[in-house]
Amino acid sequence: MIGKSKTFEQRVNCYRCQHFYVTWDRQFPRGCRAFGFKSAALPSVVVKQSSGAPCMKFLEK
After folding, report:
1. DSSP letter (8 states) at residue 16
2. Which DSSP category does 33 fall into?
3. In this structure, is residue 1 part of a structural domain?
4. 52 Cβ partners below 8 Å, 6+ apart?
5. What is the Cβ-side half-sphere exposure of residue 32, based on CA atoms within 13 angstroms?
6. Looking at residues 5-25, what average pLDDT do you find?
7. What is the rounded average pLDDT for all residues in the chain?
8. Is residue 47 part of a domain?
9. pLDDT at residue 35, rounded to an integer
């Protein structure tokens, strides 16, 4: 795989997850029903930054 980093391969795509939703909140437009929070960044990025591990609640749509 030329040009793709290791973190790119491990990143969870929230847009393909059943738990992901778009909110009406301008400051926190993305949400995760599994973890129960809203954020400005993709929830998978917040989970990775907080726990150091990739999101374990991902469910493909």
Report:
1. G
2. T
3. no
4. none
5. 23
6. 81
7. 87
8. yes
9. 95
